[in-house]
Design goal:
single chain, 629 residues, alpha+beta, Butyryl-CoA Dehydrogenase, subunit A, domain 2, Butyryl-CoA Dehydrogenase, subunit A, domain 3, six-stranded mixed β-sheet, 20 helices, 11 strands, binds ligand LGJENVYW, binds flavin-adenine dinucleotide
Length: 629
């Protein structure tokens, strides 16, 4: 592919996806059976994968195409190949050694091997060290024995495992030389490549319906003493030699690398869902008129209600702020990963801490925002055809998978309190935590000054982290570590979120200051940033008084300031959402099409209900009359 700038890449790939011969004709899936939905979504996911292959896309381009998976166009009910693409392939690329890469990757790219990432078990997801699937090495046969000790250790959840994948990267407890060596990844064939039947010793199937994404094809998997060749343990990091001797990885958590990558990808991707929801709500809020007619004789557009502006506009600002900061995290991840591959793991702890808190902050903010946007559309937002319920189901899944958000925030907090207490290696230049070892930024708060807001967000983060670090330190003198930690959990989570917010606003401040293409764009970014900051203060007023240096009078001024900013942003709402450049077919919403023809579309979608096929459905006679109601 020739080199293109970011927006050219987006246009190019967007039109490739929308006009692809196997993708361009869409069907409504609401009334399909579970099996039909799966078939439809799988065939579209396969077409996407072929497109990625034909175009020879790099990881950035793949990430843009994959981000279409959230849309109602490509895989409206969940992509059964998402985990193959986002986790299985990257795990092979980063955790298999060179021989293994050359042994498997050809078959992966020609579609013979389709994989999943099988880590979570029925009884353990969060506490990875507690996984109970075992891989016991036998030097005589040079094989691992993979075994599920009981049903609670069944793998449960892996995407694509249900009926799609024929291979899995299985995370299991390694035993060699009679010693437990911790969690390691194994490449395991689970279904026959030709017949797709489960291989001997394997029990596999799909787990059933969920809140959403029902064609993600989540599955279960059990092993009954399945023999796996020695060469199938992924050996870029740790190794088991033929005689069973064991070589440790360069970093104790090297095998957790796929999770770091996926957290970064989820943070980036969930903003796409928010952009779609914001576009739907913005367009609908213009079209919808309701209330006492005004002087012009017309009922007001609902967006002109101040309350509606508060429900919709801050989330449009959030799209811009979160998109920019997650894109920078993605770039940072690329840089750190190449250092780690070169053997330098110094930047890994902070990358892990940042990825954890951004994945948590973004998925939490986006799912709350999408729900607020859904409510902003009144009753019609409750309809499946608005697409808002599916977008919510998508975003909220992100709060659980790839590390439940509370647990991830606690990982970040662990890093922050160590930094605050000086018990971690000092941060590298450009680190996101240097503010903890410097005096607080005492820029006085002034409504209307983004720099003053950023400083206040920083003081909140610093105050939250140092306070909980001190409380933890004090409790450690009087009680066991686990109890001291538990005493502070709620405050630790709040500290990590405050740190995440500071990261986001600092990154965006830099993006705004570096933006040089036009004065008008600069001003618009400033306005969006001001809305985001004023809204952030209004959501956490207590924190800004307690730690941020704001007075009650500042808080009152900020409330008024936010409402003024919203009124200022209101005329730009449609251009700002149009700028996300989301074609109607991608949005796939009765409420969010570009032409605003909402009511006709709503009637049109109702005509698809099978209950409208006959004037009196057969069920009336079969169920109601028979029961003699
Ligand atoms: C070529 C292809 C390219 C494709 C590009 C595609 C781009 C796609 C773009 C968009 C599409 C996105 C579509 C998204 C669809 C995604 C589908 C997702 C499906 C979901 C999958 C899953 O959920 S998989 C399962 C995930 N499970 C988890 O996340 C479990 C969470 N738990 C843990 O991670 C760990 O147990 C936990 C970290 C909580 C604790 O670990 P533990 O071993 O107990 O460690 P601990 O004692 O607490 O800490 C010790 C020490 O280790 C440090 N540490 C922990 N983890 C890491 C790490 N990952 N990296 C580095 N360091 C780590 C920790 O901080 C401690 O450090 P010290 O304090 O001791 O210094
Ligand atoms: C749609 C979907 C797709 C998924 N895809 C995959 C996949 O492809 N592969 C895969 O391996 N897994 C997958 N998963 C599993 C997912 O990674 C786990 O569900 C997730 O990591 C959460 O773990 P858990 O279910 O054990 O939750 P739990 O840890 O049991 O969480 C329950 C509650 O306990 C709390 N809690 C747990 N531990 C602590 C602690 N130490 N401190 C404080 N609170 C705690 C949590 O905060 C939460 O409130 C998927 C899950 C979903 C929903």
């Amino acid at each position: 592919m020739v080199s293109r700038n970011r927006s050219q890449v987006k246009d190019h790939l967007g039109s490739k996806v929308l006009n692809h011969p196997e993708l361009r004709n869409t069907k409504a899936t609401e009334y399909m059976s579970h099996e039909e939905k799966y078939r439809y979504n799988l065939s579209r996911a396969t077409a996407m994968l072929k497109l990625i292959d034909e175009e020879g896309m790099d990881v950035n381009e793949i990430s843009k195409v994959m981000s279409h998976t959230v849309s109602g166009f490509t895989t409206p009910d969940g992509n059964p190949l998402a985990v193959h693409q986002v986790m299985f392939v990257p795990t092979l690329m980063n955790q298999a050694d060179d021989d293994q890469v050359s042994r498997w990757l050809g078959d992966v790219f020609n579609g013979t091997i389709v994989g999943t990432y099988a880590q979570t078990e029925l009884s353990h997801g969060t506490f990875v060290r507690g996984l109970r699937t075992t891989a016991t090495y036998d030097p005589a046969s040079r094989t691992f024995d993979l075994h599920t000790p009981d049903v609670s250790a069944a793998k449960w959840w892996p995407g694509g495992l249900g009926t799609t994948a024929n291979h899995a990267v299985v995370m299991a407890q390694l035993y060699t030389d009679g010693q437990p060596r911790g969690i390691h990844p194994f490449m395991v064939a689970i279904r026959d490549r030709e017949t797709h039947r489960p291989l001997p010793g394997i029990t596999v199937g799909e787990i059933g319906p969920k809140l959403g994404q029902n064609t993600l094809n989540n599955g279960y998997l059990l092993f009954d003493h399945v023999k796996v060749p020695r060469e199938n343990m992924l050996m870029r990091n740790a190794r088991v030699n033929e005689d069973g001797s064991y070589t440790k990885p360069s970093h104790q958590k090297a095998s957790y690398g796929t999770m770091v990558f996926t957290r970064v990808a989820i943070a980036l991707d969930t903003v796409d869902a928010l952009q779609i929801a914001a576009t739907i709500a913005a367009r609908y809020s213009i079209v919808r008129r309701q209330g006492e007619p005004r002087d012009d004789g017309q009922e007001p557009q609902i967006i002109d209600y101040q309350t509606q502006q508060l429900k919709v506009l801050p989330h449009i600002a959030a799209c811009y702020v979160l998109r920019a900061s997650t894109a920078r995290l993605w770039e940072h991840h690329t840089h750190v990963t190449s250092e780690v591959r070169g053997g330098d793991t110094a930047l890994l702890p902070e990358l892990h801490a940042t990825a954890c808190c951004l994945k948590a902050l973004v998925t939490q903010d986006c799912s709350e925002a999408i729900e607020a946007l859904r409510l902003s559309c009144g009753g019609h937002g409750y309809m499946t055809a608005s697409r808002l319920p599916a977008l919510y189901a998508y975003a909220t899944a992100g709060a659980t998978y790839e590390g439940e958000n509370t647990v991830l925030l606690l990982q970040t907090a662990r890093y922050l309190v160590k930094q605050a207490g000086g018990s971690h290696a000092p941060p590298a230049a450009g680190s996101a935590v240097t503010y903890l070892s410097r005096p607080a930024d005492d820029t006085p708060f002034a409504v209307g000054s983004p720099a003053a807001y950023v400083a206040a967000v920083g003081r909140v983060a610093r105050g939250r982290v140092t306070e909980v670090a001190a409380a933890l330190q004090a409790d450690r003198q009087t009680m066991p570590e686990a109890d001291a930690w538990n005493q502070s959990l709620v405050q630790l989570v709040a500290a990590a979120l405050a740190h995440g917010r500071y990261f986001v606003v600092r990154e965006f401040a830099e993006v705004v200051s570096q933006q040089s293409s036009s004065r008008a764009i600069q001003q618009m970014l400033q306005l969006l940033f001001s809305v985001y900051l004023a809204h952030a203060v209004s959501r956490a007023e207590g924190d800004f008084i307690t730690y941020g240096g704001l007075t009650p009078s500042d808080i009152r001024l900020n409330r008024r300031h936010l409402l003024r900013l919203l009124a200022e942003l209101r005329p730009h709402m449609i251009p700002l959402t149009d700028a996300f450049d989301l074609p109607d077919r991608l949005i796939n919403s009765t409420l969010g099409a570009w032409d605003g023809d909402v009511y006709r579309r709503m009637f049109e979608q109702a005509s698809h209900s099978p209950l409208n096929t006959d004037e009196v459905p057969a069920s009336f006679h079969q169920a109601m009359l028979r029961s003699k109601l």
